Structures are given as C-alpha cells and as structure tokens.
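Minimal example, chain plus adenosine-5'-diphosphate.
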Amino acid sequence: MTQFQRALFNPRRVAVVGASASPGKAGALFLRNLTSAEAGFRGEVIAIHPTADELLGCRAFPRLAASPKPVDLALVVTPPAAVPEVVADCGAAQVPVAVIISGGFAETGARGAELQREVARIAKATGVRLLGPNCFGVINTTSGLNCSLSIGLPSHGGVSLVTQSGAYGMAAFSRSIDEGFGFAKIVALGNKIDLNEADLLAFLGEDPETKVIAILLESLTDGRRFFEIAAEVAAQKPLVVLKTGRQPGAQRAAASHTAALSSDEAVLAAALRQVGAHVVEDGKTLLDVASALDCQPLLRGNRVGIITNSGGTGVELTDLFEERGLIVPALSPELQATIASVIPPHGSAVNPIDVTTQWEHFSKMYAWSTEALMESEEVDAAVAVLLQRSALMPEVADALIAASKKARERGSLTPIHICWVAPRSADANREKLRAAGIPCHEWPIATASVLAATVTKPPRPFAQPPKWQEIPRPDSGEAGWVASDAALSLLQEAGFPVARWAFAADSDAAAAAARDLKFPVVLKAERPGLVHKSEADAVRLGLCDSMAVAAAFEDFCRRLDAGSAIVQEQAGPGVELAIGARRDPNFGAVIMAGLGGVWIEALKDTALRLAPVTAEEALAMLGELRGRTILSGFRGRATVSADKFAQLISELSQWFAAASWLGELDLNPVIASGDNFTIVDVRMRVANHSLSS
Ligand code: ADP
Ligand code: MG
C-alpha cells in the first residue's frame, strides 16, 4: 500500500474541514458519521473551524497546520470557493490525501470547471492526492471508517464498490441492511479530478480484504490503463461492471468503416468482455451479482440444474437461462435414478427436477436433490425454486442449508442459488438462507439475470506487445489519407496477402500494366478525396483484355476529371470479409473484424477488441458475428477457414500496433475462400497528432 492509499482507507487522524455543530449541516453529519460508536472507527477525528476549540466532542483547530499531530486524511465539506485554499493548506500541512465532498465544480458549468482546474493545479503542485470533488466519500468497514454521506456503515463482507454515483454508496448500505450484503470498501469517484477508476481498481486488486470488485462507471477517464489493469485484476478476482450512458445520441461522423462501427460505447463493451469482466446492465444486478460472487464459489461453466415445486416456473426459468447463454441439460440416467428414488412417480428427475406439490416430503426431496446436483459433475450450478408453500416452510430452508453445507464439506464447488417467490410472511426463512450465504433472488427473471452474469470465463492473454518493430510512415496526401498504391505496398512488404496490382498514370500505362497481370483485372480510379470508390462508379470489374482496361481508364477521366488508377487482379469468387483498426485517444489501438463488402455499414456485423489480439482472441471475435455461419459455407458458397482468418486478424492487429503513425486502417473487402485470403481494398489514414508533428 502506498502512503496515500493507507491514508485514504486506514487514516490514523481525519480532519473534517468545514466542520459544524449545527444539525442538518454536512459538517456535522460527517463528524457524527466518523465518531459514531456503531461504526467504531478508532482513529482520531478533529474538526477544522475558524473559532471553535471543540465541536461535537472533537478537538477543533483553525487550520490544518495547527494540528499538533499529523493529519492523514482531510475531508472537505466547505463551499466550493474555499476549496483551492483548503487544498493549499493540505499541502502546507503535508496531508497526503483529501476527499472533496463539496459540489459546485465541473458538474455546474464553465465557471465550476475553471475552479476545478485551479484545485487540480494546486493539488499537483503540492503533491496532495484528491478524491472527488462532488463525491459521496469513502467507507472502510474493516476500520469502521465512514467518511461518507451514508447514514450508516454497511456490514462487513468481501465486496468493494467503486461508484461514480453517490446514490449507489447509499444503496450499498440499504442492501446490506435488507439483504445482508457485505462490503469491504466503498469509494465514490465524483468528478475524478485526480484519483480515477483505474487507480482504485489497481489498489482493490491487491487489497486482501476485497474478494469481489463492483464498479459503476458513467465515464471512463483513462481507458487503456483501466483495461490493462482490469485484465490483470479479473484474472485474480471477479470484477463486475455496470457502464451507464450506453445509448449516446451522437454518432461519430466518420469516413472509414472502422470509425463508424467502433463508437466509444461499442469499444468499451467489447473491452469489458475481452478482460473477462462480469458485465451487467443495471445497478441492482450489479450489487446482486457482486454479493453472489462473494458468498458462493465461481460459476465455471454454463450448465444449470433446477429443483422446483412448480413445473411452470421450471419451464420459465429454463427459457430465461437459455436466452442468456446458460443451458439446462437432461441429467444422466444414473443421476435421474438417484433423484427419482425420493420424488413421486408423477414428478420429473430429468431437469428441471419437479418435486410436485407433495409438500409433506419437501424437505427431504429438496435436500436430497440439492446434494445430488451439487456433488454431480453434470451441472455447474444448482438453483432451487422456493415458491409459495416450499418457501413458507421453515424446515425446507433448514434442510437446504444443511444439504448445501454437507455438499461443500465433501468438496463441492458448485454454486447454489434460490429463486424466491413468496409472500412477506416467509421472510424469516429467506433471512436464514441468506445468513447461510445462499443468495435468494426474487422471481425467475432476477434469478436468471444474476446467475448468467456470474459465469466466469478462464482468463485470456490481453493485448500482447507487438511483434513488429516500429513501421516507418509513408507520405500522405490530403487529410492524411495514404494513396492506395503506397498503402498496398506497405501491406505487401509486411507480408500480407495483397492482390497483385500496378499503378497507372494514363490509359496506355494501364493497358500495359494489365498485360503483366492475370486477366480478368479490375480498374479503380484514384482521385484526391475519393474514399468510397464504388459509390462514384470508380471501380470497374471483370476487364478481360487491355483494350477494355484502356477504355475504362478513359471513361473515368471523362466522368471524374483527369487522374490516375490502380489496375488489380480480380480475386474470388469468395466471401467478402473486413478487417479494420483505429487509434483511439482513450482506448489506444482498437481492432475490428467482420463480414465485409459494400453492405458492411448496413449490416453492422463486426466484432471489436483492444489491439493487438492473439489468434485465439480473434477466433472469439468471429464467434460473436451474427453472420458467422456464412464462414462455414452457407448455401453452397465457399467455406472460409476461421482459424486462418483469425491468424490474419491477429497479425494485422500486431502490425497496426507497431505503426504508431497510423490513425485508421480499413481492409474491405478481404476476399476469402478456404485458406486463401486476398486483400483488394485498403484505406489508411495518418493519425492527427502525427500529421501536425
Ligand atoms: P470501395 O470500397 O472504395 O467502393 P473497393 O475496392 O472495395 O472500392 O471495390 C468495391 C467492390 O468491388 C468490392 O467490395 C468487391 O466486391 C469488388 N472488388 C474490388 N476489387 C476487387 C478485386 N480485385 N477482385 C474482386 N472483386 C473486387
Ligand atoms: Mg472497399
């Protein structure tokens, strides 16, 4: 732990700057939260106040520097205009970290943003680390530190929550009261003037008290670094992420397909999958999934066994699971026979296991089936539906708890969850199950959403360093577009399968060049600013002799004014694929692959990753394509080797990563048949920063 991390989570002395004794003021609330006997924080709490000697039982000083002992953490609740001076005081008193609760900064407009920049400048100059401003604060349940707006300290557990929204800091407390969720640390980021999600992720990844990390993101400040850390952390402990603001109204105006098809949100979602995060779509599921991962073993596969006293609910759950990528497989005849021995003949032991409505045998049937499922190798998770009568019977909950305990003692690592559908009068039974660490989800839909989001995939190597030396930059023309001839040459020199071509400045040269290639050939006009050639009727396919080539060249010159052309061997027939890449200011190199050709933007069937990627990762990308069956020879068309395509994607991603001057790269189409791939159209654009240098 670095000094500021220790100061933030385990301070020996906290100073409330802007402290007050008037009830209803934030300065009083924080003093009370920090000194509450229930929370049990054992560090010293002092108040900073212009005149008082004592406030709500805490010693008070006029300035931080007046404290006779060093302050580790300054909690700032002053009006915003006073914050720059307070941060300067922190610097003077060598306070390592300040949590700025005060609002009135960038979230309020231009003037607030200027004030925030001033605070940032002072913090940087004085070396004070900052959390916030405009944030909910920090909680550490181990040390009893409630340095937050929360009305109480949540109970202790393994979930650490990083949230940009203060409301979820509050929600953590209420979920811990109502549902028994346990938290280790809670950190609200606010406006992220200094400390951001990547800093906290790195810290919590190494924090032995944090078993599961839950993150609620509104924006991502330091995308590339966040994902590099996330990949390492997610290989050690579960990382559950909710990203809000997924539906931005604005779409990037873009000339290349890659730019058009890789919005920030699309890249972010892909990168979260790439690093193996558990991605959820809402805040309640975020906390439910994190808590389930905290109290149950990881779900390592997708097979679920269901035990139910309602056949209808079993069917409903099966649908919901299978729509979310889980399966409810039929059990083996042996396992069915074991289970059938305790259930009535009109029940079912296939899966879902239907114990029928014979409530007098519920305890035995649930316990026996739970143990059988948890100890079998046939399912990866067990779900018991406790619905109405089975939920109302205390002995059923007791029997389930005992059965799961027994299975655990015998070494079972199968997670167990409850699908709970019952009146409030059954709540005591639910409490018991929860206290035993068995998550109870209300109704089938929540059960399915939570369970599906707990699936843990084996870690995959992330963004390997490029194999290539830095690729030298060619001359580029208008707006940074590299001429086709130069772009094709670069790829050919790197060993990529480019269709044979020649550059032609006039019709005679085009006709002569065609004779050196294999007919039929394709003629493509080159004009400054012409990026989508077929839209301007500037691609002529199927030219079978040099006369036709010369005629096509003349035609281009008549219609598009004078200029040069590319003569290229015609590839195919085959499937038209696309590979693209771009450099993003926040995420770094991004790679895209999918079905190509002229329909690419209409079909939007592409997959994204942070680059570079391994061939294995590229293969996973292809698995995400809606049209992936087209690769395996749809309706008599050529089949395409997915392994070879994945290899090509991986190599291009490596090459792109090494061409740091390159802003955008589009290969569309790559014409593929079997093991053969031919790149026929390339677009390259020099990165903006590199243009101006
Ligand atoms: P643009 O994308 O600028 O319109 P392309 O060079 O991609 O121009 O050509 C448009 C279409 O023409 C391609 O999607 C492909 O179907 C076909 N095409 C282009 N070059 C070749 C080639 N060498 N062999 C076979 N088909 C080609
Ligand atoms: Mg094209």
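DSSP finds 24 helices and 29 strands in the chain. The mean pLDDT is 93.
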